[in-house]
Amino acid sequence: MNLLRASAREAAAASSGCSARVTSARVTSARGVALAPPYTAIDVVGDAIRGSGLLLAAQDVAAAHEGAYTGEVSAAMLVDAGVGLVIVGHSERRHGLGETDAVVLEKVHRAGEAGLQVTLCVGETGDERDAGRAEEVVERQVDAVVDLGRVPLHVAYEPVWAIGTGRTATHEDARSMHAHIRATVAAEALIIQYGGSVKPDNSAALLAQDGVDGLLVGGASLDAASFAAVVPL
Fold it and tell me: Superkingdom, according to UniProt (predicted)?
């Protein structure tokens, strides 16, 4: 929950000079740049980036088509608001709000049915990594979304243990897990982004790693100057 409407509009306007290159404020891929503001700022950010080549994204989507789900926002509503991509299964929703693989799958289905692109977030906690289960956990999360071929989807690897904990994921950690994800899906063309505390001082080195196709930018996307250093404007 960051940025009120005015701040989101200003940040989006400052980012609207980005060329379709390799990243996103909250999402980055080899196919371009996407900005994912909070629901309350989707309209003003959409206006700010119109005609810029940036893609408007959302941070989440409801698992249901429609109905009595107070507070939820459906995939159809997002499309109606001009959104083209949605983030599903972010670590903060999985581990902070108890979102399960089954719920993530339903959200991917709803997004795909509405014609939205999907950024599927996967990643292990510190306890899971320390127990030697990192690859097992990430493989389970990827396998839970069984119809990758029917939904325009790419994957973002978030090492939960390296986000705001003081622990640091190495470039080799990123490279090796991306390779494992690609082998699990058996799709060389799959776009895999890295999303573990991406900052201006590590973004270039991360993108230089084999198999790292883009970046999922969190805190660094809240400041236009910081984001500009990650994604040259």
Answer: Eukaryota
